[in-house]
Amino acid sequence: MVNSTAYQSHNLTEETSSSSSIAKCQSALDDPESSINAGYDGDLLWSPAQQTLLFSASVYGSFITLFFSGYLADKFGPKFLVMGATSIFVFVSLLTPLVANYSYKMFFVMRILMGLGDGFMFPCSGSLAGRWFPSTEKSTAAALYTSGRQIAASLASLIASNLCASSLKWPSVFYLFGTLGFLFLIIWFIFVSNHPSSNKFICEAERQYLMANCNTTNKKNTNKVPWRKMLTSPPLLSAVFCNFTFILQATMMQNFLPMFLKENLGLPLHSNGIYTMMAFGSQLLFKNVSGPAGDYIKRKKIMTDTNCVKMFQTIASIGSSFGMLALLFLTDCQNPRMALVYLFVFGKSDFQ
């Protein structure tokens, strides 16, 4: 998509060029022919600063809708909100090749629109899970319904890197995922309902069980939200801050990992997709182990719900921090395979 050969790598300074290994990496990374052979010969001349701004554009959009999307999901139901958000994804994806070649500024606006839709996805997923899963299965449910992120990131990185390296080039990536988004809309509209009571595809025994054990009421909640107490609650503020720091590093990893692998390790395009898949594939595996494990611990009353969450969150935070620091300081272009180990450790720690 972006022609990386038009801009030399600036990761290493002149002061560090005395190291033979660093100098060798620098020479390889700054060689335009090497980058072209590696598959990074795109047709868009956007600087690294412009690329970084595009990564943040979707975050700006989601920051706007995130504040009220959960309220709307609880009030009106998440089904059609998810459909609206996905429609934005489809629209933006299919128009991206045209807009990207026409105007960088318009493409930036399109990424903000993508973020507006993304701000609805997690709150709506949580609202829907609360209506369909008993409280004793919440950890398993969270691992299950958030697994789509890891599945998408794993497969998308592999598929996109191979499509970009093929004769179809980068526009095919957006056309493919835009089409998949349209198919998702059809499947979602047919099979998904806000409550088990209105779903046509479950048996009566399952319906009765879910209605008895889940928050499936269709009645509107007239209780006022205690905003002042919430915004001044130390436990709540602590949880928000901890979640912010964890999501920050997870977002940085998802957005900038491919660029890091290219700029710092000099990986060719097809290998970039495989390495990126390692982190998210590992997350997918271990989050679906830790979720049921957490439910088992709480069900057997081995520890309280709060202590169980604290334990898994601590393991996740320490493990992911180690993986990121090791990836930064213990890998280089002469030994890129060690990055696979650290990416696996990073993903293995996704217990949150």
From TrEMBL:
The keyword Membrane applies. The chain crosses the membrane at residues 53-73, 80-100, 174-192, 236-253, 273-290, 311-330. It comes from Diploscapter pachys. The lineage of its organism: Eukaryota, Metazoa, Ecdysozoa, Nematoda, Chromadorea. GO terms for cellular component: membrane. Residues 1-352 form the Major facilitator superfamily (MFS) profile domain. InterPro entries: MFS (IPR011701), MFS_dom (IPR020846), MFS_Na/Anion_cotransporter (IPR050382), MFS_trans_sf (IPR036259). This is Major facilitator superfamily (MFS) profile domain-containing protein. GO terms for biological process: monoatomic anion transport. It comes from the Eukaryota. It is a multi-pass membrane protein. SUPFAM superfamilies: MFS general substrate transporter. Its main location: membrane. GO terms for molecular function: transmembrane transporter activity. Keywords: Membrane, Transmembrane, Transmembrane helix. It is found in: Membrane.
